[in-house]
Amino acid sequence: MNAEQICKENTSAALLTVLVVDDDSRFRCLIASILCPAGYRVDEAADGMDAIMYANKHQIDLLITDLVMPNTEGIETIRYFSKHFPTIPVVAVSGSRSFLQPAKALGAVATIDKTSVVEHLLGVVQHAIGK
What we know:
The protein is of the alpha/beta class. Helices cover 42% and strands 18% of the residues.
């Protein structure tokens, strides 16, 4: 199952579009399973380059990006979004806490450790978009 299928199962009207960037499809689905029932539309990208191409063609309201990925990794993605899409808030996630502080220094409005995503994601997202 992917994010689109998860979100289709939840019939509420989408409030905002969140682009989730992670090379692990299971993690993207986990994010969708948390955000879609709360009314968010979740789209997904497998790496930073996919996210950049997606954002150049579609409206998104929030970017959630992993930091360690093949091809274009999260730090590069944050730098790109900070420069080209400065109004889109970015949340950085990582399984390694040592990567989270540099991500925040480069423009992520919030960071979250992957081990605490289930407990804290919705609150972090609401804070990042100003709700």
